[in-house]
What does this fold into?
Amino acid sequence: MIIIISNIRWERISFRLISEGCRPIPRAYHKGNVSEDLRIATIRILESERLEDLSVRRLAREIKVAPANFYNHYGSLNDLLLEIAVEHFQAFRKQIAHINRTCANRTDALKRIVFYCVDFACTNPQIYRLMSGYIPDAYAYPRYRIMAGAAFEDLMELIYGKRVFALTDDFGPNDMKTLGRKVEVGYGMYAMLCGLSRSIRHERIQRTFFR
It folds into this structure.
């Protein structure tokens, strides 16, 4: 902030009082904050805009760093987006665990997971897209593959009331026939959840129907 006193130009800077007088406190740059700032800026933008509106240059501008600095923390924009997806898969697993602990029976648990998934898709449409295959080669990213698989495994356990397959089965996006045979009912419900969430998100069904 600039102050003009008696035609003399001064800059206002932060001071602290010490015994020998006042001197400015240097503003330290914390390199480790950049990756977190990028993540927060991305999520904030996605609250009101589309995934297609993101770019490395824009995110760098949002947090006031050079675009080249982005690549000190993420290999690409997709890497950042997939890390955000991983974070939300982790939150989804915690929600499933909470529902399992607090529901009196499996019927109530199934109702709650349906409401949770639909509400999440409606209130976080861009994150939902990100978790649902927006990035075509997402399964080539190890952390995404592991966490998406773990979330699906937990969902199947909630649906069946028991553990029906393990992550060591290493299912991928091209293994739908195998999944269909192994967890036919569960995969059918998963497909229903996805379709219902997309339908309501696109306002094909009035959300008031669920009130």
User: Anything to note?
Assistant: Residues 167 and 202 are 32 Å apart (CA to CA). The radius of gyration is 24 Å. The beta strands are 2-5, 8-11, 15-18, 21-24. Confidence is low (pLDDT under 50) at residues 1-30, 204-211.
